Amino acid sequence: MKKLLFATAPFSSRLADVAWLLFRLHLGLSIAIGAGWSKLINLSTAQESAKLASGATALSPPDWFVQQVANLGFTYPSPYFWAWLATWGEFVGGLLVAVGLLTRWGGLQLAIQFLLIAFLWYDAPEPILGMYYQQLLFWAFVLVTTVGGGRYSLDNWLQHRSLAPAAIKVTAPQIALLALMVIGATGNALAQRAGATTSVAEFDKLLRNDWTGTLTYLDYRTQKPVTLPTTLSATQTAPRQLTLAFTYRESATRSVQGQDTLVFSADGREITWSSKLRVVAKTTSTPQGLHLVLEGPGMDDNKPCTIRKTIDLSEQHWSVVKEVKYQDGLQYFVRNLYQFEH
After folding, report:
1. Could you say which DSSP state residue 167 is in?
2. Helices 63-71 and 79-99, interaxial angle, to 10°?
3. Can you name the residues that pair with 340 across neighbouring β-strands?
4. What are phi and psi of 17, to 5 degrees?
5. I need a surface site. Which of 103, 136, 200, 324 has the fewest CB within 10 A?
6. CB under 8 Å to 252, separation ≥6 — which residues?
């Protein structure tokens, strides 16, 4: 059983063992913190963080991720179930790979996740030859599954724990290096959330093509979702301004035009989009390319509220989820969802 759970073997070179340790730390922590943890907390204000600390808010995947899971066809028994498994799989699996505990098993489940992302979710998959990082991560986790934790891993220690303690040598520089890697990765993730900025240049992909997709919104009167076929054309109308022109097809013979204007602040920390929204989170290493979360005060159904917009933009995909939380409410709900492809 021990061999099945913790199977691993050192490389013939100590230098290779150190390189493998650094590779595992980067790969595991970047997935655990940058992908898994950032989805689980999905928090942006001190008030919400306090709720999390008090246990009032559960760690759970955000609605935009649940929607992506549903779009892949994982709807039974519920897309929330699969989104929950995938998010915790990224967080726990990444940590297991980083520390080298049950390394092959952690790598295997992440390889399966990125198999789906690289070859089912990705718009134009190119096995082996495709130069996109979702496929690179898939092969990286295949490699981890094959090699295991290596010499500097908990798996290797557990395999040989019957040895005398003196037989396992851990030097001060190795401990310091590991601590610096963990602190640096955690600090970078927190810094991304604390001081995130954006600019018109990061929306360049949006300007290159016309987009076709849908708008799904929660009707104010019936409180039921309505979906309209929608097209989008984006133009840069000033150095720090974008104009989004929408065409909504309400029926075979009737279309309605709409327009949004996005004005970026000089320091990149805010976007005025109907109301002033602050950049509270930003990731550029997700399968979507750019993942941006905006939040600020606004009005919805003539009531004061907090508005959160989650943007995902890649070469071929653009989505915006608008969530609303009223002043007397505890949770956000999805008011509308734009999804476009080209």
Report:
1. G
2. 100
3. 213, 318
4. -65, -40
5. 136
6. none
Q: What gap in Å lies between CA 258 and CA 317, rounded to an integer?
A: 20
Exposure b/e, 3-24, CB count within 10 A at least 16 = b = eeebbbebeeeeeebbebbebb
Please tell me the distance from the alpha carbon of residue 43 to that of residue 53, in angstroms, as a whole number.
Answer: 12
Residue showing tokens 């720090």? 240
Summarize the chain as % helix, strand, coil (round to 5): 45, 30, 30
- Residue 63, both tokens: 């609605």
Point out which residues pair with 117 in neighbouring strands: none
DSSP H helical ranges for the chain: 2-6, 14-31, 38-41, 46-54, 63-71, 79-99, 103-116, 133-147, 154-159, 172-194, 204-207
How many CB atoms are located within 10 Å of the residue 95 CB?
18
pTM value > 0.85: no
Q: Are strands 333-341 and 225-238 parallel, antiparallel or unpaired?
A: unpaired
pLDDT in tens, the chain (342 residues): 556 566 777 788 889 989 999 999 999 999 998 888 877 776 433 344 443 444 444 567 777 777 778 777 787 777 888 888 998 999 999 999 999 998 999 999 999 999 988 888 776 778 888 877 788 999 999 999 999 888 888 888 888 775 444 444 555 555 555 555 554 554 444 444 445 789 999 998 899 888 999 999 988 888 889 999 999 999 999 999 999 999 999 988 999 999 999 999 999 999 999 999 999 888 765 555 788 889 889 999 888 999 999 999 988 899 999 999 887 777 788 999 999 998
DSSP run (H or E) holding 240: none
Q: Cis check for the bond before 77: say yes or no (omega within 30 of 0).
A: yes
- Which residues make beta-bridge pairs with 286? 289
Tokens of 23: 């590779």
Distance (Å, rounded) from C-alpha 211 to C-alpha 262?
17
Does residue 106 contact residue 93 with C-beta atoms inside 8 Å? yes
What span, in angstroms and rounded, lies between the C-alpha atoms of 138 and 114? 5
Give the C-alpha separation, 78 to 75, whole Å.
Answer: 5
